[in-house]
Structures are given as C-alpha cells and as structure tokens.
Amino acid sequence: MVQEKDWIKDLVVYQIYPRSFCDSNGDGIGDLPGISQKLDYLEELGINALWLSPVYRSPNADNGYDISGYREIMAEFGTMEDWERLRDGCHERGIRLIMDLVVNHSSDEHPWFVESRASKENGKNEYYIWRDPVMGKEPNNWASVFGGSAWEYEPRRGQYYFHYFGKKQPDLNWACRQLREEIFQMMDWWVEKGVDGFRVDAISYLDKPRDFPNSPLPPQPDGFAYPQGLAGRPGTHAYIREMNRRVFAPRNVLTVGEVSAPTVEELGNYVKTGRQEFDMAIPFVPPMVEIDTWSPGKLKRDIWERYRALKEEGWWANFFSNHDKPRQVSLYGDSGEYWEASAKLLAMFLHGLPGTPFVYQGEEIGMTNLGLPAIEDYNDPDTQNRYRQLVLSGMEPEAALARAQLESRDNARTPMQWDGSPKAGFTAGIPWLQVNPNTERINVEAQRQDRYSVYHCYQRLIALRKKSRALSRGDLAFLETGSEELIAWTRRAGEETLLFCFNFSRQGRRFPENLLKKAGEVLLSSYDREGGYGGANFRPYEAVVFRGKAGL
Ligand code: GLC
Ligand code: CA
Questions:
Q1: What band does 385 get if pLDDT is binned at 50, 70 and 90?
Q2: Stretch 84-105: mean pLDDT
Q3: Three-state SS at 487
Q4: Tens digits of per-residue pLDDT, 232-259?
Q5: Cα–Cα distance between 237 and 280 in angstroms, integer?
Q6: Ligand 1 contacts CB of residue 202 (under 6 A)
Q7: Active-site residues: which are they?
Q8: β-pairing, 13-16 with 356-360?
Q9: Is 65 near ligand 1, meaning CB less than 6 Å away?
Q10: pLDDT of residue 4
Q11: Which of 168, 394, 434, 455 has the least CB density, counted as fewest CB within 10 Å?
Q12: For residue 314, what is the DSSP state?
C-alpha cells in the first residue's frame, strides 16, 4: 500500500541535541521534561517537526549514538512517561516527532553484545561481526572513524570484533536475519508508540564485504587506512529496501537517511522515489572537508546538481548545521562585525531553497563556535582523535589545537543560550559542557524582544513558507550575476514568483541593475535593522527576498 506522503513537503524540522537543550532538574544535563517546557517556544518559532538526537539508554561513549537499550530511555534524560508526555505535547501542537535511529552499531554494553562476546557458542553469536586474527593481528588494516584500528580483540573468543566508529560501538551484523528481524520489530514498536518518523544514523555501511580485503588507501598517521568502497554497497541498499518494505511503507512515517554519498548519483540511490528507500537524505561530509572546500560558488553548484538530480523523483533535506558540524555562522558567515547580517543571510539562503529546511538548536539565534582552551576540555571522541592524528603527523600541538577548535563537534553541543545569565538559563547546576560566554549578548530572551533579531528572521521565513506555494513547492532557477559571491535565484509556482538575492561576502558588491528591475516588494532583508534594502550596492552579507514583478 502506497501512502500519500505530500505532508513531508510542508515540514520545517528542528533538531534537538537533548543533552544541551534544557535541563529541568539541575544536574547539568538537558532532559526530556526540559524539552517539554520549551514546546511553546518551538511552536512560536513555527516549526512543525522535531528530530531528537538519541534519547535511548546509553553509556554515552558517543552521547547516545551508542545504544544499550533500544526500548528504554536514558536515565539522565528521564523516563518513558516523560517521553510520552513530550510526544503528546508535540502532537497537541501539530508537531511531528522524529526519532534518531542508530542501527549500524549498538553499544558494547547492549545485552546482545555482552552475550555475543562471552563465548563462541551463544544465541547472539552472529549479531556482531567476529573474525579470527590474521597472523596474530587485526584481520585487516581498516581504520575506525574515531581513530585506531576498526578491530578490537576479545580474549574470551580469541577473536576480533569490527567497529567502524568507536570501540564501544560494535557494528551489528546485518547479514544475520534474526538480527534484522529484531531491529524491524523494535522500529514497529516505536511507530506503535506514536513516532512520526526516523532519522536513520550512519546508514551507508550496513553491508560489509565478507573477506574484508585490506584497504589500498594511504594510511592515517596512526597506520590504519579508511576502507575503500564500504559506503553504499548494493547489499546495504537491499537492507534499506527491506526496512522500507517491513516498516516504512505500510505506515505513513517520514524517513531521513544520514548517508555517505559523495556524488548526486549515490544520493539519488537513497532517495529517488522508485528506489523505495528514504524520503530524504542528509549527506554526511566530515567537518574538516567542509571547512577546507566550501565556497559560495561550490554551494551553488552543489545545490543545482542536487536540484536537477531529484527534481522529477525525490526530495531534499536542506541544512547548514547539525550536531556534527561547527556552528554555521562561524563556518560560512562572520561571527564578528557582520554576525547579524550573515546569520540572517544563511537563514534566508537555507529557507529559500526547494526542500525541507532543518534548523539545528541555537541556529535560530545565531549561536557561534566556542574554542575551548585545552584539548582535555573537549568531550567529543572525534575531536580527541583528530588532535592525536594531527600531532602524530608532525603538527605543533598549538596548531593542532587551533584546528580542533575550528572543527570540533562540541562547537554545536554547547548549551542552548536561553538568557544572558552565566549558565544561559540552561541549567541551575553545573553544565556538562561549557556555556559560551557570548550568551550575554546572544540569547533567546533578548532576541524575542527585538523585532529585528535573527530569531525573528527565522520566524518570518517559516511563516512565509506556510503562505507561499512558490516557496514550499516552486521551481528553482539561478540567475546570472557575473560573480561567484553574488547569488540570485527565483522560486516560481503558477503566477507567484519570489526573487532571492545574496551578497555572500565580506565586501560591498554591486548587483546587476537589470536583474533588480524585476524585483517587487521587499519581503525580508538581512539589513532590516538598518532600514532594509537600499538599492544595487549590496552591503557585506546583504540578502533580500523580493516578490517578483510580472515577467520575471
Ligand atoms: C552519525 C552521527 C554522529 C555519530 C556517528 C556514529 O554520523 O550523526 O554524531 O557519532 O553517526 O553513530
Ligand atoms: Ca537534567
């Protein structure tokens, strides 16, 4: 049975990293009752879907992306009753609830793994990937994403287990039918409980080659090499389609895959309608790659390629930020002089595209990176590993620290800045990760009172999407501007046209006059505080949304 799934095209998704959102009981850790307390705020912002990063039982080796109980709630976050209250609170407000699903791996503390590692003869023997040593060593040279070998020795079995991420995150063996059945039943169970969708974590690596050949890629400084061709194997797509047939298709749930897909063809393999896999996909790009390679021109080319690839069948998930990336205003914009204009430009850019916008907590008030003073201050295992690799490769410790400060996933994980007090209104206790001192200036309370704030820019964009079919469903066309940093596009549906113009740079730049002749009423401007649109000479990070005149 195929369901009408047009509703997914009207979503604006807000991602919550529960640990850092709102702490209701003063233990310094955000929790589910804390999120429930802020639902009015989210409703006021206008979003209509909430994606919760994992809230299942977990020893937190990777902050919940290491699950030890798929049908339980992490004690620090509250109880199942708290989750049910949050679900009901969302549904009363017309907000869909999307859960993060981590099934490439579990925690090593999951009862399945505890049993699997105990001996070779047990009911969970095949739930994980076990291999004999090769010449007394790891079965192959593969590196784990979080550093070191992707294999860990278990003396009780005299074997190694495979972990593509941390060693407390053993990969589940999807080749085992019984394991797959357990996962599908668990997913069904959550759907029965009222979940409206899943964001499916690290889903490109389910299928592994049986023989685990050595990787021919150049090794990392610690001697291990990333596997070649592990992402997107045909077997992985077969497992996703099985998941779709078993769980998604019979139910009207939203599905978003977090995928490793370097080309649009590969992206299309996950989301083209005919493939029957996911509704949309979040392509994962390592922060270091993004930092080193992005430019406004590249953004534009990537958007156009993806637009063309999925226009006929498929849909887009649009995001600048999530819990794995540096803060967007620090990465793509300017956290100094042009902080406000650039934060608004990024908002208008993202919300102006065809597809579903994803807003990451704090983005809507322009939160910025926080460089911590020492490597020990970082919680993120990925940051620790990158630092170690850089030092091993010969980089000076200070330089390696500077790099880690720029890339660290902890930049996105500092507590949400609710008010200007030292603990940001996040907690009454000691926050688990340091609060950014700029909460004094950048916080929800101040921005709600200020009609020209970044927050209000987001609110207006979300409201505009609800009214404008050109924005929610219209076609996209880029207009020639003669410069990589001046970007202009139209969105059109029927008679309605919107024109988006951006000066994506720190310099004042002149927009081509002929292009602006078609610009009608100004709907939004990143310089609204200064009086709004002032003509063809665009200021640094100036962005304007116009209604298009007839004939545009
Ligand atoms: C995904 C998550 C990331 C996590 C990893 C392993 O990339 O977004 O936070 O560390 O998977 O689960
Ligand atoms: Ca708490």
A1: very high
A2: 98
A3: strand
A4: 999 999 999 999 999 999 999 999 999 9
A5: 14
A6: yes
A7: 201, 258
A8: parallel
A9: yes
A10: 61
A11: 394
A12: -
| pLDDT tens, position by position, 48-59 | 999 999 999 999
What order do you get walking across the sheet with 130-131 strand by strand?
Answer: 130-131, 159-162, 151-154
Residue 75 binned pLDDT confidence (cut-offs 50, 70, 90):
very high
H helical segments located in 408-533:
444-448, 454-467, 469-473, 513-516
What is the 24 CA–ligand 2 centroid distance (Å)?
5
Which residues have a Cβ under 8 Å from the Cβ of 289 and sit 6 or more positions away?
Answer: none
Ligand 2 midpoint to CA 194 (Å): 24
HEC-encoded secondary structure of 172-186 = ECCCCHHHHHHHHHH
Give which of 314, 308, 322, 227 is closest to 270, Cα–Cα: 314
Give one word for 480, left, alpha or beta, with left for phi > 0 and alpha for psi -120 to 50: beta
Instruction: Provide mean pLDDT across the span 26-38.
Output: 98
Q: What is the CATH number of domain 475-548?
A: 2.60.40.1180
CB of 380 closer than 6 angstroms to any ligand 1 atom: no
Q: Count other C-beta atoms under 10 Å from residue 289's C-beta.
A: 12
Residue type, 82: D
Model pTM? 0.97
- Whether 319 and 296 have beta carbons less than 8 Å apart is answered as no
The residue assigned the tokens 């400084």 is 221
Which token pair is 319?
A: 């995001």
**128 CB less than 6 Å from ligand 1?**
no
Instruction: Quote the percentage of the chain above a pLDDT of 90.
Output: 98
Parts of the chain belonging to CATH 3.20.20.80 = 10-103+177-371+417-455
Return all residues near 301 (Cβ < 8 A) that are at least 6 apart. none
- List where CATH 2.60.40.1180 sits in the chain: 475-548
Q: What's the fold here for domain 10-103+177-371+417-455? A: TIM Barrel (3.20.20)
3-state secondary structure 121-137: CCCCHHHECEECCECCE
Ligand 2 geometric centre to CA of 23 (Å): 4
Residue 266, CA distances (Å) to 236, 261, 319, 337 in order: 12, 5, 19, 39
